[in-house]
Specification:
By secondary structure, this protein is mainly beta.
């Protein structure tokens, strides 16, 4: 399914984040060296976590003072803590984009192991809230959560925002200028609730709620003859379906070795949706370690919609912070989309700093005839936030033939 992401991440300046990097650097560099991935036994993410857990296990009974929540969280930054402790980061953001003017907000990320056991997969909960000079506001929440023994898998996101969306039209060859600005209140809740059937194999339910209220279609004066797309005046669609995931990743936020394949099907019946429709998707990801610090990753994704009435905000689309970086979210949209990307990472390159470079291609089509392909390339620096959990902060610069974008996130794009 196409998922709308806040455009405020595009062309972000993130000045306060640079200062935060410096603060972490001065604290961590003076207090603790970064664990070398080569020092842990085995080549998989799981063996890496297991080795850290063994290192943290005392050989003799030692009485240690009880540590506060803040002390435990700070220990994750410096590398002095226990790998089993939680990792918490809260930081301010500042950005600028033409459609928002100045944007101010706060982001947070929380990572942990179920039952404080590093043998379980790493769970992550992240959020972002913002307000702009143009009196726009919003918040979103994403999560990848595993229960003890990885028996249950909860994977999804929730978004609520009052935010303008540039609409470029429908099709593979739309104009570079937006034909309209669609204003309104957007609500999106997407959740997968999956149960492990056998090792690494999950099956369960998919839920998807997409709401656009108080909508207003503001046409570009140069394109006033263009007809407003279906759903431009608002809609509420609720879908339910089935999902299947094969997942060997131990640390989804920074996969060094692992595979993930997801297939899903959703139906939006007339009794729960303004526009009855259906959707299907697949998402395949693979990451391989080339050395102790080098990783190469591949991703292929397909999004498909069917039915006579598919609202514009649920059409498959290209662009955003995760795939086809550099394009505005929804720069191209149609009934179907196919995208692929490759990324090369050096983590770390020096001390707690790393770097990554990527390239991606994508196409949209009304049918399955993907004739026109678009590309994006880019890269950016990385900073190791949680040495004991191998989690990096990334700043990506994406470039296309039309535009460019800057994206700031904790965790890799896939």
């Amino acid at each position: 399914m196409a998922i709308y992401q806040p455009a405020c991440h595009a062309r972000s300046l993130c000045w306060l984040i640079v200062a935060w990097f410096c603060l972490l650097s001065s604290a961590g560099f003076a207090s603790h060296p970064v664990p070398n991935p080569a020092n842990t036994s085995g080549s998989t993410d799981e063996s890496r976590a297991t080795a850290l857990a063994k290192e943290s296990t005392p050989t003799t009974a030692v009485t240690t003072p009880k540590r506060s929540f803040i002390s435990k969280a700070w220990g994750q930054f410096t590398g002095d803590g226990d790998p089993k402790d939680i990792g918490l980061l809260v930081y301010p953001t500042i950005a600028y984009a033409p459609e928002t003017q100045w944007d101010f907000g706060f982001s947070a990320v929380y990572v942990y192991y179920a039952e404080n056991d590093p043998k379980n997969r790493l769970s992550e909960l992240s959020g972002f809230a913002f307000v702009t000079q143009a009196k726009q506001y919003g918040m979103w929440l994403e999560h990848t959560l595993y229960s003890d023994k990885n028996k249950w898998f909860f994977f999804g996101r929730a978004t609520a925002q009052s935010f303008p969306m540039q609409f470029f039209g429908v099709g593979e060859a739309t104009r570079k200028d937006p034909v309209a600005l669609i204003e309104g209140n957007f609500v999106l809740v997407r959740e997968r609730v999956l149960r492990e059937l056998r090792k690494n194999v999950y099956f369960g339910l998919n839920f998807d709620l997409q709401h656009l209220g108080s909508a207003r279609y503001v046409a570009n004066p140069d394109y006033e003859d263009r007809q407003a797309p279906l759903g431009a005046t608002g809609s509420t669609n609720f879908g339910i379906g089935l999902g299947f995931i094969y997942d060997t990743r131990h640390n989804p936020m920074n996969v060094r070795n692992g595979l993930m394949a997801e297939v899903g099907l959703l139906g939006y019946p007339s009794w729960t949706s303004t526009f009855p429709m259906g959707a299907a998707y697949f998402d395949g990801r693979a990451c391989f370690s080339l050395s102790a610090t080098q990783v190469i990753g591949f991703q292929v994704r397909g999004d498909f919609t069917f039915g006579e009435s598919v609202p514009f905000n649920q059409l498959s689309q290209l662009g955003g912070a995760m795939m086809m970086r550099g394009y505005y979210t929804g720069r191209f949209r149609d009934r179907n989309a196919l995208t692929a990307q490759v990324e090369y990472r050096i983590l770390p390159l020096w001390w707690r700093f790393g770097v990554a470079t990527f390239a991606s291609i994508g196409s949209v089509a009304n049918d399955l005839g993907f004739d026109t392909w678009h590309w994006s390339v880019g890269g950016g620096p990385r900073f190791l936030l949680f040495p004991l959990k191998d989690i990096y902060m990334r700043i990506d610069f994406g470039f296309t033939t039309e535009q460019w974008g800057t994206y700031f996130y904790v965790g890799e794009s896939f």
